[in-house]
Design brief:
- The structure is a single chain.
- By secondary structure, the chain is of the alpha/beta class.
- The chain is built from 12 helices and 9 strands.
- The protein has a 5-stranded mixed β-sheet. Strands 1-2 form a two-stranded antiparallel sheet. Strands 3-4 form a two-stranded parallel sheet.
- Strand 1 (7-13) and strand 2 (16-21) form a beta hairpin.
- Helix 6 packs antiparallel against helix 7 (168-183).
- The protein binds phenylalanine and cobalt (II) ion.
- Cobalt (II) ion binds next to helix 5 and helix 8.
- Cobalt (II) ion binds at residues 131, 135, 140, 183, 198-199.
């Protein structure tokens, strides 16, 4: 038996049809994974690990090993949870897919990381428009073993609950911070730039593109700059923001965001690929191959 995710409905929005899933916590149906599911995991795992040595933050590879995540079979959430809970108090919970924003924030604030239980099909190894088990587990979970990053994720959850109460514009600003750090962030190591964002870590193409292509901008992290910058969800990023350390991220996000939300509400947002005055430019992108528009 191969279990199927329970989609509740497809919502028609201005961004097209969006799958909405049942929002409850589900037990990982480990026994129902097929041999193909395990093989898809194994292939993706081995492929990304080979690419990420020397490209991802060394801390990512270290924490992935430390929690016992391996290629041989789809990991069991309950096994990973033993290491994770002990290390930083985080816990993985199984979900059907993307959650409503407030539900997601409340989980993070309570150190519960929602992981999609199902894995992509064999013909989707290179790209999938929505998070699956490989993206969530391989990409997001290892760094939850790092105490500083673990605290950042919980603080982000609390900030999300707060932004949700302030209003939709605040949420847009906060979501950009998540996008340009947790999903598509780069970090400086003594020997060069490395990847820590899960959206990159789980993508073969972007793992190479973000470091080796001349097209994108690489700019030093600045909180307000990031929160004011639009992004595209359907192509490689036009700009990557670079942190020096997870402590820098934690420190920069400590202040109350409410005045920042108020300030940003009164200014025009920046296009995804535009370099701004005052940017700490590490590398200015050539813009080669960029599509016009499409930033949200
Ligand atoms: N300091 C933010 C606020 O006041 C909360 C936050 C912390 C947001 C860490 C993101 C990351 O809203
Ligand atoms: Co993600």
């Amino acid at each position: 038996m191969n279990a199927e995710p329970r989609r509740v409905e497809h919502l028609q929005t201005d961004k097209g049809s969006v799958p909405v899933y049942a929002t409850g916590i589900v037990e990982q149906p480990w026994a129902s994974y097929s041999a193909t599911d395990h093989d898809v995991w194994a292939q993706l795992f081995r492929r990304q690990r080979a690419i990420l040595v020397g490209r991802s933050d060394d801390e990512f590879l270290r924490t992935q090993d430390a929690m016992g995540m391996g290629s041989t079979r789809i990991p069991r959430f309950d096994e990973l949870n033993r290491a994770l809970k002990k290390q930083t108090g985080w816990e993985l919970i199984g979900v059907e897919g993307l959650l409503p924003e407030l539900t997601f924030f409340e989980h993070l604030a309570n150190r519960r990381f929602p992981v999609t239980w199902w894995i992509r099909k064999r013909d989707q190894l290179d790209y999938l428009a929505e998070p699956d088990l490989f993206h969530d587990l391989f990409g997001h979970v290892p760094l939850l073993m790092n105490p500083v990053f673990a605290d950042y994720m919980a603080a982000y959850g609390r900030g999300g609950v707060k932004a949700h109460a302030i209003g939709p514009d605040a949420l847009v600003n906060l979501t950009r911070l998540y996008w340009y750090t947790v999903e598509f962030g780069l970090i400086r190591q003594p020997d060069g730039l490395r990847i820590y964002g899960a959206g990159i870590l789980s993508s073969k193409g972007e793992s190479i593109h973000c470091l080796e292509s001349a097209a994108p901008n690489r700019i030093g992290f600045d909180l307000e700059r990031v929160m004011n910058t639009r992004y595209r969800i359907d192509t490689f990023q036009k700009t990557y923001f670079v942190i020096d350390s997870y402590a820098q991220l934690m420190d920069a996000t400590q202040p109350d965001f409410e005045p920042i939300y108020a300030k940003l509400a009164a200014v025009r947002s920046f296009p995804a690929g535009a370099v701004q005055d005052g940017d700490r430019v590490i590398q200015r992108g050539s813009g080669e191959g960029w599509l016009d528009g499409g930033d949200v």
